[in-house]
Automatic annotation (TrEMBL):
It holds the Pfam family 4HBT. Keywords: Hydrolase. One of its GO terms (molecular function) is acyl-CoA hydrolase activity. It comes from the Bacteria. Residues 49-123 form the Thioesterase domain. InterPro entries: Acyl-CoA_thioesterase_PaaI (IPR052723), HotDog_dom_sf (IPR029069), PAAI_dom (IPR003736), Thioestr_dom (IPR006683). SUPFAM superfamilies: Thioesterase/thiol ester dehydrase-isomerase. This is PaaI family thioesterase.
Amino acid sequence: MAIIMQEPALMEFLARDFAQVADDFTITRVEEDLLEVRLNVEDRHLRPGGTVSGPSMFALADVAVYLAILSRLGPVALAVTTNCSIDFMRKPAAGRALVAQARLLKLGRVLAVGDVLIRSEGESAPVARAGLTYSIPPAR
């Protein structure tokens, strides 16, 4: 299945439908088998000790898979997360953005399954890995 939405259209969709979090993320790459998105880390994303919080990493993984789905299906605002498992593997580097690479393992009519690796910007070792399942609403 070909890419339907590229970075500008995806960012416009986020700004319009998810304005409360749109500024937190920057899409850096959209390919048929990979979507890369950056969490623009601010103080509100940090936990005591200066590291990025688990909920912020979860949000990054969730948004990455959501955008990967939209890139292939178009603007389906009502697609929702039905399952997520996240493994926190190491502490993110202080003072750096996080970058998520999302891959869709399955994109069906009803369910989408994705895998995400999250790294500190400029680092090769992942800080977290997540697997997510999304429910896709029926076409109208």
